[in-house]
Design brief:
352 residues, 27% helix, eight-stranded antiparallel sheet
């Protein structure tokens, strides 16, 4: 840092056999203007206003006088600059990522020809992840063609764990969505989103009869239909049915090593108060017609439950409803409500 302020010829002349000439270095530092000091601009202006121009001007001052007139910041800086006070450096940890690129001796004209370099890059990635004890959340592939164009696609994972077979299968599925317009000259793999690898606890005996979700199946669906093709219903804290849940991309809720955080599909249990609500709600409640006191929706609807009263959002837009379960003449069950403010019946949901 100090030598970077000096001309190259000065810096080179002060270093001989990897030993710095301290006396020569001190003399060169004293000649530098105070504007190069790594202190606040306010302190530099204060020093300049007194008439000091070089570092040597303030270095001649007694330490107590320097601190009293210009503060402890300037004193500590000078002591570190002249190696009279320890100047420990902050520990720097570079960002962890994997990036490799392969150049081809001969261009590749079809996707099948890319299989071998893809396998090689994935093998190197798996080896890197095992050494670093990391999980990867997405892979970014880039294909460079002879027409100076790029084909880029991303492979996203919903589950943690290092699995070469899954990486390869999902990469091939994503690659099938792209057509090679020009011969490919190079391929690059980048993995930036890394997270700590944690051991996964498993039961000693297989649990027969229990449903087990298959994150790899979700990965395959997304690879074929796009990253936004799989969604889950995320419960929200609201009494109003149309506001008590939201659809989220499933990748948002499956965070690596964060299964207990908000949004995990393991915690998506229905709230007790909504246990009897249908899972299929209309985007907007649909008005119902009433004929001779009988609700009509492509046929006759018969109320078969007591009223479930709902009054909320008085602070924004007052809502007062009476919800009922109704049976259609065809045998289906519908969720309807009577709006006490609008004085009208609405259809809000359908039971499966």
């Amino acid at each position: 840092e100090i030598l970077s302020y000096l001309p190259f010829s000065y810096s080179f002349s002060m270093i001989k056999d990897d030993v710095v000439d301290s006396a020569l270095l001190k003399s060169k530092l004293c000649k530098l203007p105070i504007e190069l000091m790594q202190i606040s601009q306010k302190t530099i202006k204060k020093i300049s206003s007194v008439g000091f121009k070089t570092i040597n001007d303030i270095h001649k001052l007694p330490h107590h006088a320097l601190q009293k007139r210009f503060g402890s910041e300037s004193l500590e800086y000078l002591l570190k600059l002249f190696n009279q006070l320890a100047d420990p450096r902050k520990h720097f940890t570079p960002a962890e990522f994997f990036q490799q690129r392969l150049e081809f001796n001969e261009v590749v004209h079809h996707r099948q020809g890319l299989l071998f370099p893809i396998k090689r890059l994935l093998e190197n990635l798996v080896r890197f992840l095992h050494l670093q004890q990391k999980n990867v959340q997405s892979l970014k592939w880039k294909l460079f063609d002879s027409g100076k164009g790029n084909i880029c696609f991303e492979v996203v994972f919903s589950n943690a764990g290092i699995n070469y077979k899954n990486y390869l299968e999902l990469t091939q599925l994503n690659l099938e969505q792209h057509k090679l317009k020009e011969p490919i000259e190079a391929i690059e793999l980048l993995a930036e989103e890394l997270s700590p690898l944690e051991a996964i606890s498993q039961t000693l005996f297989e649990q027969v009869g229990e449903f087990c979700s298959n994150p790899h199946f979700i990965n395959k669906i997304r690879a074929k239909l796009g990253n936004n093709s799989c969604q889950i219903i995320q419960p929200l804290s609201s009494h109003l049915p149309e506001l008590c849940s939201i659809n989220q991309d499933i990748i948002m809720e499956v965070k690596f090593n964060n299964s207990d955080k908000k949004g995990s599909y393991k915690n998506l249990n229905k709230q007790e108060s909504n246990a009897n609500n249908p899972t299929w709600l209309l985007t907007h409640p649909q008005p119902l017609s009433v004929n001779n006191g009988i609700l009509q929706y492509n046929g006759k609807l018969t109320i078969i439950s007591s009223a479930k009263k709902l009054t909320t959002h008085w602070w924004k837009k007052n809502t007062a409803r009476n919800y009922y379960i109704s049976e259609h003449e065809s045998g289906g069950y519908y969720w309807v409500f009577y709006d006490l403010i609008k004085k009208h019946w609405f259809l809000h949901g359908i039971y499966g």
